[in-house]
């Protein structure tokens, strides 16, 4: 390849660091992880488990859909927890508070539960949503970290997630508060999974793709090659005439069969390489599969 034209020259990677940045030491990073661990420990040590139990029991008893809502980072957490419940065969959905006020609130019914995640409990979008959701007869639950907030006071139930402080040096960036929201929501999800006696097979039915589905759903007959897909040949066939069959079927081997389709052996890519090493000159064109196959 030639050199790139001048207009496509890639910039050289910057050397050194901008003058306003400081080198990050291993000790500094380790201390941050330890601080976050301490903040999480504060949450575990101060969580009111009676609230957690009431919350979990309410979701378990729900006859309708469990909706989750939130704004910003709390919204992402709410959406993730909803997706976790769906994967556990629990009817759930994320309700965007802005879209709800423009028509999506029509999805709510009196049989549903609406869980509102907010660190402060003063999120305007959620507070505007509350009276509209209550008019639909929805059971309202707030999950907040600030005591005596407007959202908690307006809901049927509140779960307080104890927050010592954010890991952010300014105590502003929501990194610890979202961590405890996620831990709380996912732990409740697993509690619901156990209470509903979800089996491994039921769980796998919702995960048909990837390793989970292949290991728990698919049987050999679902993925095996059949009939014309099989790379077959006879032991009397010339090796050089079977190269297309060997490569085109994508199996890495030939199945050597007799006239009654009984398996006599295999001839693999490795056997082909070894054959090419051993044979010389025109001899390779005379070798038959039966001469080199694994019986």
TrEMBL record:
Which part of the chain is the CBS domain? 224-284
Q: In the record, what terms sit under GO molecular function?
A: carbohydrate derivative binding; isomerase activity
Source species, domain of life: Eukaryota
Q: Where is the SIS domain?
A: 55-198
Kindly list the residues the record flags as site (Catalytically relevant): 73, 125, 166, 207
Q: Which UniProt keywords apply?
A: CBS domain, Repeat
Task: Give one Pfam family, short name only.
Answer: SIS
Q: Name one GO biological process term.
A: carbohydrate metabolic process
Return the PROSITE patterns for the record: CBS, SIS
Could you say which protein family the record assigns here?
Belongs to the SIS family. GutQ/KpsF subfamily.
Q: Report the NCBIfam families cross-referenced here.
A: kpsF
Q: Which PANTHER family match?
A: ARABINOSE 5-PHOSPHATE ISOMERASE-RELATED, PTHR47476
Descriptive protein name:
SIS domain-containing protein
Question: What organism is the protein native to?
Answer: Gossypium raimondii (Peruvian cotton)
The lineage is: Eukaryota, Viridiplantae, Streptophyta, Embryophyta, Tracheophyta
């Amino acid at each position: 390849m030639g050199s790139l034209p001048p207009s496509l020259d890639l910039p050289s990677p910057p050397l050194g660091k901008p003058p306003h940045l400081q080198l990050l030491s291993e000790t500094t990073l380790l201390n941050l992880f330890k601080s976050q661990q301490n903040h999480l420990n504060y949450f575990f040590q101060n969580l009111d488990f009676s609230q957690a139990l009431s919350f979990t029991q309410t979701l378990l008893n729900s006859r309708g859909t469990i909706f989750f809502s939130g704004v910003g980072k709390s919204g992402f957490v709410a959406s993730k927890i909803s997706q976790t419940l769906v994967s556990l065969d629990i009817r759930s959905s994320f309700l965007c508070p802005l879209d709800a006020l423009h028509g999506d609130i029509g999805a709510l019914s009196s049989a549903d539960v609406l869980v509102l995640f907010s660190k402060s409990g003063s999120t305007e979008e959620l507070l505007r949503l509350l009276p509209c959701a209550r008019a639909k007869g929805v059971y309202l639950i707030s999950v907040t970290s600030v005591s005596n907030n407007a959202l908690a006071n307006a809901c049927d139930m509140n779960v307080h997630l104890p927050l010592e402080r954010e890991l952010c040096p300014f105590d502003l960036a929501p990194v610890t508060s979202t961590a405890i929201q996620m831990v709380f929501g996912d732990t409740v999800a697993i509690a619901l999974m156990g209470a509903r006696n979800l089996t491994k097979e039921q769980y796998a039915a919702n995960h048909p793709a990837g390793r989970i589905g292949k290991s728990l759903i698919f049987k050999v007959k679902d993925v095996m090659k059949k009939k014309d897909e099989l790379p077959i040949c006879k032991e009397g066939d010339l090796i050089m005439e079977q190269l297309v069959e060997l490569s085109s079927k994508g199996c890495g081997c030939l199945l050597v069969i007799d006239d009654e389709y009984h398996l006599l052996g295999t001839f693999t890519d490795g056997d082909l390489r070894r054959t090419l090493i051993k044979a010389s000159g025109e001899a390779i064109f005379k070798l038959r599969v039966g001469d080199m196959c694994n019986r």
